[in-house]
Structures are given as C-alpha cells and as structure tokens.
Amino acid sequence: MKDTKTTYTLNVIARWFVGLVFLFSSFVKGVDPLGTTFKIEEYFAAWSGSVLSFQWLVPMSTVLSMALITCEFLVGVLLITNSFRRISAWLLIAMMAFFTCSTALDAFSSTYGINDCGCFGDAVKLTPFQTFMKNVILDIPAIYILLTCDLRRKRRTERDTIIASAAILAMVLFGLHNINNEPCIDFRAWKVGNRMINTDNSDVQAESFTTYKNKQTGETAEFSATQLMERYSTEPDFDDNWEWVSSRVVDPNEIHADGFSMLDADGNDYSVDIISSPDTTIIATIHHLDKVNEKGLAALHATYDYANSHNFYFVVLTAALPEDVDAFKDANNLADLEWYFADDKAIETMLRSNPGFIMLQDGVVLGKWHYKNIEKMVK
Length: 379
Hints:
Layout lengths: L4 H26 L2 H15 L13 H21 L3 H24 L19 H20 L9 H23 L27 E8 L5 E5 H10 L3 H4 E9 L20 H5 L5 E6 L7 H16 L3 E6 L3 H10 L6 E4 L2 H7 L5 E6 L2 E7 L4 H4 L1
Parallel strand pairs: 4-5, 5-6
Antiparallel strand pairs: 1-2, 1-3, 4-7, 7-8
Helix pairs in contact: 1-3, 1-5, 2-3, 3-4, 3-6, 4-5
C-alpha cells in the first residue's frame, strides 16, 4: 500500500483501536485467569465429539489460559508501541481468525451451547452473536494493520525486544498472582460488599411481568400482572391487538446469583435460609474434592476452629457426590462439618480457590479468602 500521510495516520488509529481492545480484554482476563481456564474447559467439552476429543487437553487448561491472556496482552502492547510491526500484525491476524471462527460457531450453531465466550472475562458479558459481530468489526482494522505494517518500518530490535519481554513478564506475574490468590478485582456476583439477598423484603411476594408486542404498530410494552388484568378488563380485543413476547419474574427473596443452591443430601434447598441468616456465616467452597491438597485441608480445619471459637455458623458447599463426601470426611477427620451440595459452576463463580472461604451476614458478603491466605481471616 502506498505510503502517504493518510494511510499512515489510519494505521496509527487502527493500531491504537485494536491495541486498546486487546489490552482491556487481556487485563480483565488476567485479573481472573482461572475464569478463563474454566471457559477453555467448557470449549473443550463442547468441541469434543464421537470422532474428535479435546478432553486430553483439559489438564493443560490453566497453562493455555495464561498463554492466551499473555499473547493477547503482548499483541496489544506491540500494536500501541509500534513494536515488531510485521510479527505483531501476523499474530493479530492469526488470533482474530481463530476468535472469529470460534465465535461464529457459537453464534450460528446450537450444537455447542456456549452462551458467553468469556472474551472480556466477567467484566462485560456479550451474547454469542454480539461477540461474533465484535470480532468482525475488529477484523477490518486488523487486516488494514497487516496491509500497512511495512509503512515507515524501522528496525529497532533492541527496543522492541525490551518492550515485548517486559509485557510478557508483567502479564505472567500478574496472572500468577491472581491464580494463587482470589482475583484482585472481582467482577462476579459474590463480590465483597454485595448484598446477595434482600433480607428486608421477606414478606414481599414475587411479581411477574409480561412483554407484549402491538401487532399494528410494532410497539412493545411490559405489563405487571395487575396492569395486564386491567388491560384485559378494559380492552376486550387485547389478544387481537397484542402478541406475547416474553415473561419474567422478580422475586425479592431470591439470591442474586444464577443457578445457586445449597442442597442437603435429601435435595432440600437451604440457600435462602443460610445466605440471609443474621448470624455471621462462613461457607467453605470446594468445587473439586479430589483436588484439595494438604494446605487446603489445613485451612479447612483452621477455619472451622476459628468459626467455633467465635460462634460463627460454618458449613461446607461442594459439587462432589454424597458418597465421595462421606469418604472424604472419614479420611480427613471432618465428620463434624455440615455439608451442602451445589453445581460446580455456581461454586466456581463464588470462589476460584479450592477450597475457598466466604463470610456473610444478613445476605452481605463480608469477606473472601483463598486457602493460601486464610491467616488473614483467622489471625
């Protein structure tokens, strides 16, 4: 492409635009690399079929997560600093080709069932189609960057090497810190300070809302149950003029976390009672019972002793089977603990640590701790 002031200016704009998107995307994933690990495992399960399986890669998911995040951060830094222009342009094209193809499968195929690709971690949630369109939009400047990567290119190997090395080191250290601790910035529902249930609304009943579309004007309107009854009573031809679109229920007594439950061995859900309790409650979360190490066990015992000494309510929430829990309790002298069961995804959303510990009172999250940092709670 001809080297003119306009083409070079557009190259700068394109590099900064894509570079900033890549930096933001890598940062919000670097805050929580294990979240990306779980998403990669979800993709491996979705892509595995009767002929081809990716399950053998699952043990490497965390390494792949860190590699993806670091590469994305590196490309963002290289684009903005105008370093290794040809290499960064080809890396960008390769990543965008992969992202665009994989999100196209999510957007246009019901086979995989991936509702969120995790491209912006838990910070920004996009539908599969929104994610695909985002990648299509980024493809345009990415192609332009590749076509203009040789404009006014200077060899600055020493400078570029220092920048690339610093970017890789910074993200690796940042990611490892967040793997070995709870994420330094929490974008999830169970963030410290969040109220997980409205304890002041125990007498308020759930309310349903229905959205209808006017067949003549195309206007959409949402009606509460009371409003809908009034419309039916005043408009005998309401059904002729309006068609149903969707419904939703607002329950003020519902926990503000999708799919969350705390089931006992008989299948009874005690989540509302435990989360809304006025007493200080500590929940130990274990999403993979077979991956609890010795330090995790020690933290479990120490936290239980701490809770008893302060008259706190202490329970364990796990995704394991009841028979596996019984064997685990017998093997590790944990028979006195009160155990509940939940989906592993719901537990992983609460805490990444295995085990992890969360303290609540009146539905409010007071604190969260990785098992490696439990001394910060029990000191």
